[in-house]
Write a structure and sequence with these properties.
single chain, 202 residues, alpha+beta, NADH Oxidase, 7-stranded antiparallel beta sheet, 7 strands, 21% strand
Length: 202
């Protein structure tokens, strides 16, 4: 049976903040207010991380050999128009596929060495890698290339958050196996980065 799919609002390619302003504003934010995200804001963040930018399928983040080993998930807690659950981003269709129901943020926080603060983030993005997409061509060095790409995608997301007046931070301290269990990831996927996003506490 097909999994529920949600069409995302079209991404904007012009914004009110310049790249230089976004760079100046970017800070690691770990305290979030109670406000949720709009679907358009989440769509823009996901596009910044791995959005399609050309007819040939090129994306916002560079990828060795254009092999795109990354998958992007979002644990939704408070996003307008979305039920709580875990969604997988589908860049080619600019859509979300719901893969799990229920609020998984507390379990993710527990898997991240009990960093309970990010349970308050309305959305928690998780970047994973399917290494064989790059190692098939580049051998073991392909693992490094996938890590490069995750860094590029995460920084794009952080800068987009800053441009939207949102706060975000990269979390690297987590137990890989527990994150895989919480998200029920396919066997070939390895979690690399967790990025909670929300409205900064004033």
């Amino acid at each position: 049976m097909a999994k529920p799919s949600v069409a995302l609002p079209a991404p904007r390619t012009r914004g009110s903040a310049s790249l230089e302003e976004a760079l100046q504003r970017r800070r690691s934010v770990r305290e979030f207010s109670a406000g949720g995200l709009s679907l358009a804001e989440l769509a823009q963040l996901l596009w910044a991380a791995q959005g399609i930018t050309s007819l040939g399928g090129g994306r916002t983040a560079p990828s060795a050999g254009a092999l795109y080993p990354l998958e992007v998930y979002v644990a939704v807690g408070d996003v307008a128009g979305l039920e709580r659950g875990v969604y997988r981003s589908e860049p080619r269709g600019h859509r979300l596929e719901r893969v799990l129901t229920g609020d998984r943020r507390p379990a993710l926080a527990a898997a991240a060495l009990r960093q309970r603060w990010f349970e308050k983030a309305p959305a928690v993005v998780v970047l994973t890698a399917v290494y064989h997409r790059t190692t098939g061509k580049y051998g073991e060095r392909g693992v490094r290339y996938a890590h490069f790409e995750a860094g590029h995608a995460a920084e794009n997301l952080l800068l987009q958050a800053a441009a939207l007046g949102l706060g975000a931070v990269v979390v690297g301290a987590f137990e890989d196996g527990r994150v895989r269990e919480v998200l029920e990831l396919p066997a070939a996927e390895q979690p690399l980065e967790i990025v909670p996003v929300g409205r900064p506490e004033k």
